Amino acid sequence: MGKIAFLFPGQGSQQVGMGQDFKESNEQSAQVFSLADERLEYSLSDIIANGPVEELTRTENTQPALLTTSIAILEALKEYDIQPDYTAGHSLGEYSALVASEAMRFEDAVYAVHQRGMFMEEAVPAGIGAMSAVLGMDQDVLEKITTRVTSSGDSVQLANLNCPGQVVISGSKEGVEKASELAKSEGAKRIIPLQVSGPFHSELMKPAAEKMETILDKLSIIDAKVPVIANVTAKPIEKTGEIRAKLIEQIYSPVRWEETIRYLLDQDVDTFIEIGPGKVLSGLVKKIHRRAKTLAISNPDSLKEAVQKLKEV
């Protein structure tokens, strides 16, 4: 058997009721939800369980909610003694990966991503920024388009380099609109405007990154016991200083997800276990390498199924 990577989802995978089966059936998982409420000093667990969806999708709630759910599921998985060789997370999922690699305590990570969500909301007033997915276009061509639009005065950058033919752009509303029109005229198959509250992973997020630095400086981050593949570089990070620096850069830099998966494949990873709600990352892995083995764990049934498949290998 080859190596195993644990993958953790980011914003967009959230759903009301996520992780509740684990909360009700596993003592360690339930403890994670309690710790989140205690650290944040409000009932995040109630928002996760009952919504309403408008409350769950507020960025300052979504980010800690996804982290909490992923780590609650991870606690249940730990009982089967399945160990990763690498961890990685998409955007905010990188914090889940750092908890899984024991570089951050869960209580510190959940506080950090709650602050991160607030800072990202505050960085750009509502309606000023935008994000769109560009499908069926070469990344290099799209990057030239965004550079051209930015240099003409309307900020827009590549934000999520997800898989071949799927890149998300982010920036000012005007910048994203102009880049989208140019991409269409130069052969993009489809442009999908995203329902987001801000231009994440763009230069406009630099004020949030500056505030985040003050938060991370106060939290305990130690060397990772398992290498974490950083969004910013698509390379492993393990040392405290490097982890801290990359978490700050990550806020305004592209998520290099396709490169992350290709790096892991090059390290002989052949099994990718997605831990959290949904199967978004599993789908992206398959688009990057069709024959890669993906297992998505979001409820107790999928956990049992994943463990059984791993035993069969």
Task: Describe the overall structure.
- The chain has 14 helices and ten strands.
- It has 313 residues and is an alpha/beta fold.
- The protein has a six-stranded mixed β-sheet, sandwiched between helices. Strands 4-5-3-6 form a four-stranded antiparallel β-sheet.
- Helix 5 runs antiparallel to helix 7.
- Helix content is 51%, strand content 17%.
- A hairpin with a 6-residue loop joins strand 7 (228-229) and strand 8 (236-237).
Describe this structure in a few short sentences:
With 313 residues, the chain is an alpha/beta fold. The protein has helices spanning 20-25, 27-40, 44-50, 53-56, 59-78, 93-100, 106-123, 139-151, 173-185, 206-218, 240-250, 257-266, 280-288, 300-312; strands spanning 3-8, 86-89, 129-135, 156-163, 166-172, 190-193, 228-229, 236-237, 269-275, 293-297. The strands form 2 sheets. The chain has a 6-stranded mixed beta sheet with strand order 8-7-2-1-9-10, with helices on both faces. Strands 4-5-3-6 form a 4-stranded antiparallel beta sheet.
